[in-house]
Amino acid sequence: MNLSFPNLKSRISNLKSIYIMAEVITMPRLSDTMTEGKVAKWHKKVGDKVKEGDILAEIETDKAVQDFESEVEGTLLYVGVEEGSAAAVDLVLAIIGNEGEDISGLTGGAAAPSAASEDKKEEPKAESNDTAAEETSAEVPAGVEVITMPRLSDTMTEGKVAKWHKNVGDTVKEGDLLAEIETDKAVQDFESEFNGILLKQGVEEGGAAPVDTVLAIIGPEGTDVSAVGAPKAAAKSSDKPAEQKSEAKTEEKAAPAANTSSSDRVAISPLAKKMAQDKGVDINSVQGSGENGRIVKKDIENYQPSAKPASSAPAASSAAAQVALSFVQGEDTESQNSQVRNIIAKRLSESKFSAPHYYLMVEINMDKAIEARKEINSLPDTKISFNDMIIKATAVALRKHPQVNSSWAGDKIIHRGNINIGVAVAIPDGLVVPVLKNTDQMNYTQISAAVKDMAGRAKSKGLKANEMEGSTFSISNLGMFGIETFTSIINQPNSAILSVGAIIEKPIVKNGQIVVGNIMKLSLACDHRVVDGATGAQFLQTLKTYLESPLTLLL
């Protein structure tokens, strides 16, 4: 018998292409408590080639945003969950198979990708992932390293270069500080991992760029890198001289796909949908000017609410003004949560429901503290606040009660060696907690200067990540708003947080006589796993002594 092995190999290959079925990828269970997942971002579009290990999408669970990698190779044939939408665990997330393969039996009869997937195909090329792919596609000369904008947090989509520490032509060594990158949370130092000459800065100082686009290029001196990082789209500019026209045509071209969807879905282009979310525009109230009434970019840009509220008072804060402008009598409105707000909500929920909170409250007679502050502030170039005095007294009290300066760690308790107090600061989009390191070793002037500096930079997103890490205890003060007493949620992994109210004049009994006193209420929230009731009460007694008799801090 004459066997032709090459012919046999060819037949096997043909059989494999016929019988290998597409792979259905379901929404994964990424945590024990996860019941559904939200697609925060797709990294592949329908029609894209997918390799094993490629990041397919970013999945937001009840705890974090995680990269989801493909375990199969092929072409992405179907997207079952739109970007920004959620689906229950084990429902169809995507289908990967051979290009052109019939998957109608796997999608309930829909042989073609969903309208959502078609929309994504028609999305303008200016999106960050496409730009990143184009920029890094140019051939890189030997010895040259292309550094892309890093993803420094789970919620980061773009970074801003707050400051360059190296200029083009400078020698760069591994570990050198290359730039300061501002994320959606803080400003972080970004170090080089390579040696060489800085040949190119992909982002100007003060400019921003999406994650994974070219940040810098390092390599041998004199290397020509002018072609590296240049978008390929530039070569097609002659075909599309007007970017705006191209964008509008792209949006309108995708209209038929949108109109084949169910009647419950609003016909809107992906770009217009994103703009509407950013501006807080209700797409149901927008009249589309595109084909068959489809909402396109210009509709969102020109949208005017049907009724305008009365103008807000000039003295209103920017946040309050935004709320006022969105208020219409008798009409409910919605505003999209920012990532910062979502993260705050998650972390506070996790703290509240995982740590058994209990609360202790005490009244402090601040008469002597008021006198002490007046004397201190009478010194030249000295001005401290009551908050500074409370921070200092708290730090010294923690040194005497180390159990309160501890953290729960599952099967053990970590007793912190340093006293690092986090001070809650309100920002337009939520709350941040800058940390005063080794607070017990600081004097009033140092505490005052540090708090003012960090609070100021927190409101302008000027804090660095390491300035918000490592707290062992936290303080929240609402006294300046006239709040007499309140309770706070513990800032994990701390085991306690102190809530400070306003100083109020009220009648008190002193030496058998009713006199006017200056009273301040403190509330201590404790994690009962770490701090027992008696321990928390003893800590408050010590703190009360320090505040009612400030001279005892010197003992």
Uncertain runs with pLDDT below 50, 5 residues or more?
1-6, 15-19, 109-137, 232-264, 307-325
Which CATH top level class of the largest domain fits?
Alpha Beta
The overall number of domains is 4
**Which class of secondary structure composition applies to the elements?**
alpha+beta
Report the β-strand fraction as a percent range.
25-35%
Helix count from the secondary structure assignment: 13
**Helical amount among residues, as a percent range?**
25-40%
Radius of gyration using CA atoms only:
30 Å
In CATH, what is the homologous superfamily of the largest domain?
Chloramphenicol acetyltransferase-like domain
The CATH architecture of the largest domain is 2-Layer Sandwich
Could you say what the CATH topology of the largest domain is called? Chloramphenicol Acetyltransferase
The whole-number mean of residue pLDDT values reads 79
Choose one word for the global shape: globular
Biggest sheet features: 6 strands, mixed
Major sheet: arrangement of strands: 17-26-25-24-20-23
Structural overview:
- This protein folds into 4 domains: 5-114, Beta Barrel (OB fold (Dihydrolipoamide Acetyltransferase, E2P)), CATH 2.40.50; 139-229, OB fold (Dihydrolipoamide Acetyltransferase, E2P), CATH 2.40.50.100; 305-334, no CATH class; 341-554, Chloramphenicol Acetyltransferase (2-Layer Sandwich).
- Helix content is 26%, strand content 25%.
- The protein has 13 helices and 26 strands.
- It has helices spanning 5-19, 115-121, 128-135, 243-253, 255-259, 270-279, 297-301, 318-325, 339-354, 367-377, 386-400, 444-459, 533-548, and strands at 23-26, 36-42, 49-50, 55-60, 65-69, 74-79, 86-88, 92-97, 145-148, 158-164, 171-172, 177-182, 187-191, 196-201, 208-210, 214-219, 357-365, 406-408, 413-415, 421-423, 425-427, 430-432, 435-436, 473-477, 496-510, 513-527.
- It has a 6-stranded mixed beta sheet with strand order 17-26-25-24-20-23.
- Strand 21 and strand 22 form a beta hairpin.
- The model is unreliable at 1-6, 15-19, 109-137, 232-264 and 307-325 (pLDDT under 50).
